[in-house]
Design goal:
CATH topology: Cytochrome-c3 Hydrogenase, chain B
Number of strands: 12
Order of helices and strands: EEEHHHHHEEHHEEEEHHEEEHHH
Strand content: 15-25%
CATH architecture: Orthogonal Bundle
Radius of gyration: 21 Å
CATH superfamily: Cytochrome-c3 Hydrogenase, chain B
Distance between the termini: 36 Å
Helix content: 40-55%
Number of domains: 1
Number of helices: 12
Largest sheet: 3 strands, antiparallel
């Protein structure tokens, strides 16, 4: 077998795919993350929890709000704080808009694989146009299109006024119609694509992990069944090149599981497409569902009512926050000392679950186009980077 190292492009972060080829088909593959360690779990240690929410959002420029929500949920669990109704509605809305952002950006990344020029640019521009409108909606609700500052412990710090809410509902109606037109046109244009055919043909049916369709629920999964191991612990005879991996791996009940759009739809929406294309189809379905859910939530917001708890009591405690991030189930756990400062923090991200699935799905795929396999899984590499290796010096 011939080994090839593919420098992956159009993915979230730095990674390579070590693929072993036999007669044009991948026999074995290793997904190698090469991003430097971020160290956010150490950065927040000893800090005020308010700082932690803002800090962990900076883990990623893509799933920013997802980390902020999971962090706030964990800290509220430790403090015994519960957001008011407006805070819950608007926080979920911020999370949904973040997922839509991510799914649209991912669509832009895979359009070049599926649609030739000159039609390609038409779809990229149309997708970016919808993304810009989503960014505007998130700015009005969360205070910024990324790392939304209105997301705080206890809920959200600002509630939109009546005029803003009316305008947002009208904008969402238009966005839903615009997106449906784009999705139908996109699916027609890719129907004759060779890569689309390969993704449809390749079946890959893993076990799934999801906690909620729209938000997150720590009680619908067993946190105690999640185990984080080193990358080399799931492989035998690991090539030296693959030992450069900087990510940890998460297992559920000792098994490799897929988390993300397909897992959510499989569990909560009666969706069962087990082809590799089924991953992308799930994202396309979720965008429409999330837009409609966002509109539904904004209709529930009570103008003039508070969006956050007024009092935070700093105390010792332990807490867990679970949120369905764009790529799947995201878990933050925190421990607070007697002064209410963070003594321990841990983050388990969706890509830590999905890395082994990327490698399994690449097996049997045509070597010529195998770089599409990691891209269709949409890994978020900065989030998953947890290891730094030091030499003996």
């Amino acid at each position: 077998m011939e080994a090839t190292v593919i420098d992956l492009q159009r993915v979230g972060g730095e990674a390579e795919l070590l693929a072993y080829d036999l007669d044009g088909i991948v026999e074995k593959a290793y997904f190698i993350t090469t991003a430097p360690v971020r160290g956010f779990e150490r950065i927040v240690k000893g800090k005020n929890p308010v700082f932690a929410v803002n800090a962990v959002m900076r883990i990623c420029g893509i799933c920013h709000a997802a980390h902020g929500i999971a962090s706030a949920e964990a800290i509220e669990d430790a403090m015994g704080v519960s957001p008011p109704a407006n805070g819950r509605y608007l926080r979920e809305t911020i999370g949904l808009l973040n997922k839509i952002q991510s799914h649209l950006m991912h669509l832009v990344m895979i359009i070049p694989d599926l649609i030739p020029e000159p039609e390609r640019m038409k779809y990229i521009v149309a997708t970016l146009n919808i993304l810009n409108k989503i960014n505007d909606v998130l700015t009005k609700i969360g205070g910024s299109p990324t790392h939304p500052p209105y997301l705080v412990i206890g809920g959200v710090s600002r509630v939109p006024d009546e005029k803003t809410l009316v305008n947002l509902l009208e904008e969402l109606d238009k966005l839903i119609e615009e997106y449906i037109v784009l999705r139908r046109s996109f699916k027609t244009s890719i129907s004759s694509s060779d890569i689309y055919g390969q993704l449809r043909f390749k079946k890959h049916k893993p076990k799934y992990l999801a906690s909620h369709m729209f938000y997150g629920d720590k009680y619908s999964i067993r946190i105690d069944k999640i185990r984080v191991v080193r990358y080399e612990d799931i492989h035998e005879d690991l090539p030296s090149k693959a030992r450069e991996n900087t990510s940890m791996i998460a297992l559920y009940d000792g098994q490799i599981v897929e988390t993300g759009p397909r897992a959510r739809l499989n569990k909560y929406y009666d969706y069962s497409d087990d082809s590799l294309w089924g991953l992308q189809e799930a994202r396309l379905i979720e965008i429409e569902l999330f837009l409609k859910r966002t509109r539904e939530l904004l209709e529930k917001v009570e103008v003039g009512e508070s969006g956050h708890s007024k009092v935070l009591v700093y105390r010792s405690g332990k807490g867990t926050g679970v949120f369905e991030a764009p790529r799947g189930t995201l878990i933050h756990t925190v421990e607070l000392d007697d002064n209410g400062r963070i003594s321990k923090y841990k983050i388990i991200v969706p890509t830590m679950f999905n890395i082994p699935l990327i490698e399994q799905a690449a097996q049997g795929f045509p070597s010529k186009h195998v770089d599409i396999v990691p891209r269709i899984y949409d890994p978020c590499i900065p989030c998953s980077t947890h290891i730094i290796r030091l030499d003996s010096r």
